[in-house]
Amino acid sequence: MKGFQYTIHSVLDCETGEEVFAGSFFNQDESAIFEIRRQLEDAIRNRRDPKYKCYYCNQLIKIRGKAENETKLKRMHFAHQWDSDDCPIKTSHKLTQQQIRAIKYNGQKESKLHERTKELVAASLESNRLTNKGITEVATETVRRDTSGLLTWRKPDVSAVYHSRQVVFEIQLSTTFLSVIADREYFYQQNQTFIIWIFKFFSDEFDKQRFTEKDVFYGNNQNAFIFDGEAISESKRQQDLILKCLYREPYRSGQQIAYRWQERSVGLHDLTFDDKNYKVFLFDVEGATNSIRQEIDDEQRAEWERQREIEQRQQVFEQRRQAYEEELEVGLSRARSSVHQTLSEVHAYPERRSPLLNEFAAFSLDTYGNLFTLFGQDQGYQPTEEDKSFLRITFERERLNRSHLDRTDLLTCLCLVTCLIKVKSPQKAHRLKKVYGTVFVLLSVKLDCVVGQSFQKVVQVAHTVFPGKESFAHLFLKAIERYPSPNLQKQDDRSGGKLAKKIEAFRQKNVEPDQSYDDVFRLLFPELFTQ
Known about the structure:
Layout: E1 10-13, E2 19-21, H1 22-25, H2 30-44, E3 52-54, E4 61-64, E5 77-80, H3 97-105, H4 112-130, E6 135-140, E7 144-145, E8 153-154, E9 158-162, E10 165-172, H5 178-190, E11 193-199, H6 211-219, E12 223-226, H7 229-238, E13 243-253, E14 256-266, E15 272-274, E16 279-281, H8 285-345, H9 355-361, H10 367-375, H11 385-400, H12 410-423, H13 426-434, H14 436-447, H15 458-463, H16 473-482, H17 486-494, H18 498-509, H19 518-524
Parallel strand pairs: 10-11, 11-12
Antiparallel strand pairs: 1-2, 1-3, 4-5, 6-9, 7-8, 9-10, 12-13, 13-14, 15-16
Helix pairs in contact: 2-6, 8-11, 9-10, 10-12, 11-12, 14-16
Organism: Fibrisoma montanum
InterPro entries: DUF6035 (IPR046099), DUF7829 (IPR057151), DUF7830 (IPR057152)
Protein name: Competence protein
């Protein structure tokens, strides 16, 4: 209820030491609230360790109130026991003991309807016994004493023996305190007796359910048994005790658990007798709810693990990216130093440098693309003698000391310029750009070192042919015959001959070779086209 003020705003959770705030606590699903309500009552009656205590007086508290409907539970609140010691925030001390007793015992006397219902239940069980359906004994108002020797006893409405199980039936027509319900259930549980609470009517509308009905319902795995007119007629027809069972079936709604009401007519043979808690139910709502919750938890845990793995991968990627950038900068700096050293040796000072030498003097990540632009001009590019001298000296020097930085390293750019010079025309320069991957594979085999790739081994470059470049594999096969590569052979032997197996498999496939770029390949590798 909007504006509702709690007298006890928060309590102490004795198990966790945390503060439990009334506002958030009473805003959760009422099944959880009523479970705690039961635990508080058990603690008050010394059947379990304390659960919640008052912050102000250190006394055990309970949950009281009136539910508005399924979702608006603001009227429920924490309260002291009626007979507790004084507390600064306690509200019940103004009531007299007579008033408290009147409230406590109001409506507890049995009515004629209660008596009639009890007789019909007993008669239905007797019909079951006479037709040999499992009942072997039936009695009404029989005193059942504590088997442990304590001077305690109960007198259930109806008691029976069903397949050697002791079962009692309690007719619940009027308002009963939770303490009474909990006491009876505890007594029967301690004496290995199953209890079945029977209602004359039970609404599936939350705002029409009394607290007594809710206490029984949530305490019995959210299964309610009803013995109304239809059930009575069906019991007579089948000569057995037939009850209506109303329960909440859980189902998954996204990442939440929702419930829908289900109703079914049942006999004792349809029910589950929980030998641990001495509860009787048709549908295991708690078990089904836990299964769905476990499924959701597992998915959320898996998603969390997935997100954590993604974050870890991102961290690794970022670390590798930073390392690559550092390596790249070192490589570019080393390349520029090598270039400037060579430029000095060929006396190519700034004022005498050609466009090609200027491009190498400012060596950067853009150099590779800029070379295609330079040689792809309408008139092409005519290298000078200084260009050729620079390329020759720098190439030999870089082969001895280089870093593998894919197409950004100096050796790759030197090889590219050499290829562009060999193809001569701008048109063929554009065609070269379409097959530069295959060109670098052939160059790697010819030079016996990695060119144009970030791999460390020549055999890794060779593996990119199968299946990525199989239409040009005929050139690769000619290259490994024409340019014997000690590194390639040695590296493949160490890997178990994987490349050799790929080559053998390729030969069996009869792949049609792509000869549409032979004009480019002939200019670059004429020896591969000689007989």
